[in-house]
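Data deposition worksheet. Section B asks for the primary sequence of the deposited chain exactly as it was used as input, without tags or linkers unless they were present during the calculation. Section C holds the resulting structure in C-alpha cell form. Section D is free text for depositor observations; keep each observation to a single sentence. Incomplete worksheets are returned to the depositor.
Section A, Depositor: J.P.
Section B:
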Amino acid sequence: MTGPWQYPELRADPAAFRPAIRCGSCEARIGLGLDKGHLQMRMRQLDALRAIAVALVMVEHFGGSLVNAYFPISAGSLGVGCFFALSGFLITGILLESFDRHAENKALAWRAFYIRRAARLVPAYFLVLLALTIFAVEPIASSWPWHAAYLTNVWIALGNPSNVFWTLAVEEQFYLFWPFVIALAPRRYLPAAAIGLIALTLVLKTLIVLLGLPRVSLNSLLPLNFELLAMGCLLAIASYRGGRANQFAWYAGRTAAIFTAAAWTSIGLAVASWAILGEGSLVRYFTNSFLCGVFFVWVIVNAAIGFRGLPGRLLDHPWLQAMGTISYGLYLVHNWMPGILERFIGPQPKIVLGPLALAATFAVCALSWRYVEQPILAFARSRTSGQPVRPAEEVGAREAGPASAV
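Section C:
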C-alpha cells in the first residue's frame, strides 16, 4: 500500500476564505483568492483517514483468522484501496497546480515533485529494507534487489510470496507514469484518460479470466490497480477550478445527495457480494474495486471538506491525526516487527508478542519521523522552494499532510 501518505501542507490566509457553505452532512470552506494564487487550506481530516486505513491493514495482519474471516470485504483490502484512491486524488491535485503554475518552465515542476517524493518515501523505506536484510528476515533478505528497485509487485506476479511492499511498488510506478499524462495531455482530455485507465483494468481482468491466469498474484501489478488510483484522480480533476486544486463548490445540494446515496449503495453491494458470493467469486473480482472506490471517493471528498458531527469529531481527534502523520512508517514496519522481536526475546505467545510488536512499531515510527524523515523533508523543501531549512516541528506540520503511501 502505500502510498496514499504524506504531501506538503499548503496554508492559506484565513482572510481569503468566505463563510462556510454547507454541503449535506459536511461543512466546506472554499478558498477564493489564495495566497500567491495557489495555496490551499490544509485538510487535516485526511490525516485521520490515513490512520484508519493503516489501522485496517494492521487488523488484517494482527487480527488472526477469526477476525479476518468475519471482517466484511477484508480489512487489508479496504485499507489499501483507500490509500490508492487517496493517493490518486492528492497526487493529481498537486501535479495540476504545479504544472499550471510553471507552465513556461515545467522542468521546475518535475524537479520539485520528484525531489519531494523521493525525500518523503525513500529514506524510511530503505532503512526498513536495510534492517530486514541485516536481520535476515525472509522473504526480503534474499530478494532485496527487487524491492530496492520498487519491483516487488512484479516479483510477486512471478509466483513469489506477497508482502506489504507491493503497494509501494504500485505507487512508485504510478508516479513515473501519471505525471506525464498531466503534463502533456490537454486538460479537457484528463477525465477521459482517467476513465480509460479504469476501462483498461476491466479489460485486463477479462483477459486474465479468459486465459486462466493466476488472479491473486497478477493483481499486484500496476495496471490491475489503475481502477482505484484513477477514481481518486477523477475526484481531483473534478475539483480543479481556476488553477486551484481542492475546490469543492460543486459538491453541494442535489449533487452531494446523489453522491452520498451512490456511495452507501455501492459499499452495501460490496458487503453483500462478499457475504453471499464469497471471496473468490468472479462477480466480486470485476466489481469490488469499483464499488469500494465509489465509497472511498465519497469519504475523501467529505473528509477534505470536513465531516461534521460524530464522524467529524472522530476525524478531528489529535491522536488519530498524529497516527496519520506516521502512517507511512507504520505501514512499512508493522508486519515485520513480530519476527524481529522474536530474534531478541525468543518465541512468545501471540497475546504477549502482539502488544509488544505494536508498541515497538509505534515507537520506532515516531522516532523515525522525528529524527530521520522530518529533517530530510525540511532539506528537500529548502531545495525546491528557495526557503531556508526550518525546524523539524514546522516541517512536520507542513509535510505530514495527505499522502499516498506518500
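Section D:
Strands lie at 3-4, 21-23, 26-28.
The chain has one domain: 3-405.
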